[in-house]
Write a structure and sequence with these properties.
Length: about 270
């Protein structure tokens, strides 16, 4: 058993769990972390896809009671049914665009320069949204209108630009559509389940042959670590967003983007 690879998998799992749901982009952080610890490039892409399953599982486990309650009530309660339909509506735009342009996105947008640009652009947009006066009209997911769900879904398309962050794009979309922060965040978590699951299964099916049996322990360590850390992050984020705005995340994104550009200019990623 390669203990060095297990340790690196542990580190990458922690990074994934910490950054997947914070609006700061897990992609950018995984690129830097992988380069810093020398994670094997041959399995990096497949490994990152696999450990996303841990983050998805964390959302399902954390919200399992709420989700089961929605499903039970959907047959008789129009509000519960509307919430599920809205998640489906929001899922469609990014799913369609991602399926159509998957190869182009992988070929042209997965590099430090584009990730750094996405981090900074997303950070600036978050600041503008927070500084812009607005009035929230929706305070419960079940009260959201289908047009709000579509707005969130269209915003999620931006997350196909690596580094922009799925969490950031859906949060911004929800806020601009008239949701308050806790509602936009909860809707973002619900939407993450079909979105991330579809993307992970799609990518994993294409890369399954790249996994060697000797690497399975490292993959398992990364998945379990991402799951446990993501559970803590979900609880923290729900509490934080209920009382604070997103400006600190915006400033952090811009700083990390600048750092990535500096590292790329210094040849760190070559």
């Amino acid at each position: 058993m390669d203990l060095s690879l297990l340790f690196k998998a542990l580190v990458m799992g922690i990074v994934e769990g910490l950054t997947e749901f914070l609006p700061i982009s897990s992609t950018g952080h995984l690129i830097v972390a992988g380069a810093l610890i020398g994670f094997p490039e041959a399995i990096a892409a497949t490994f990152e896809i696999f450990i996303q399953l841990g983050a998805i599982l964390a959302v399902v486990v954390y919200f399992v009671r709420d989700l089961l309650d929605l499903l039970r009530r959907a047959t008789r309660d129009p509000r519960a049914r509307r919430a599920l339909v809205n998640v489906a509506i929001a899922f469609i735009p990014a799913a369609v665009v991602g399926a159509l342009f998957h190869r182009s996105i992988k070929d042209y947008l997965f590099n430090p320069l584009t990730v750094a640009s996405a981090l900074m652009v997303g950070g600036v947009i978050m600041l503008i949204v927070e500084w812009r006066p607005r009035r929230a009209t929706t305070h419960e997911i079940e009260d959201a209108h289908w047009r709000q769900a579509l707005a969130v879904g269209l915003a999620q398309v931006a997350s196909l630009w690596p580094g922009f962050s799925r969490s950031a794009s859906t949060l911004i979309g929800g806020l601009l559509a008239g949701m308050d922060r806790p509602t936009a965040l909860r809707f973002s978590f619900y939407l993450s389940i079909p979105t991330m699951l579809a993307a992970t299964v799609f990518d994993f099916a294409r890369n399954l042959d790249a996994i060697q049996p000797t690497e399975l322990p490292a993959f398992a360590v990364g998945l379990v670590t991402a799951f446990l850390v993501a559970l803590v992050v979900i609880r923290f984020l729900l509490s934080y967003v209920a009382r604070h705005d997103l400006k600190p995340f915006a400033g952090y994104r811009i700083a990390v983007g600048v750092m990535l550009l500096a590292l790329a200019a210094a040849g760190f990623f070559e």
